[in-house]
Amino acid sequence: MPSGLVGMWVFGGAGFIASALALASSLAPPNQIGVGSPILYIGLLVGLATLIVTTPLVLYARRKTTLA
Q: What is the SS3 string spanning 17-60?
């Protein structure tokens, strides 16, 4: 990594900010598509994202460990 620890923080911080902006902009309903209620649109996005994130976590927590 160029510039060592400082470079890591700069590049990591830029990536985090870009990801946060992309997430925030995805919550705005598009003008070209009639989505109906903006509240329903955001609710569906948040609900589906929660489902997508929690499903693997639940499956991981319920896994059966094998003793080798």
A: HHHHHHHHHHCCCCCCCCCCCHHHHHHHHHHHHHHHHHHHHHHH
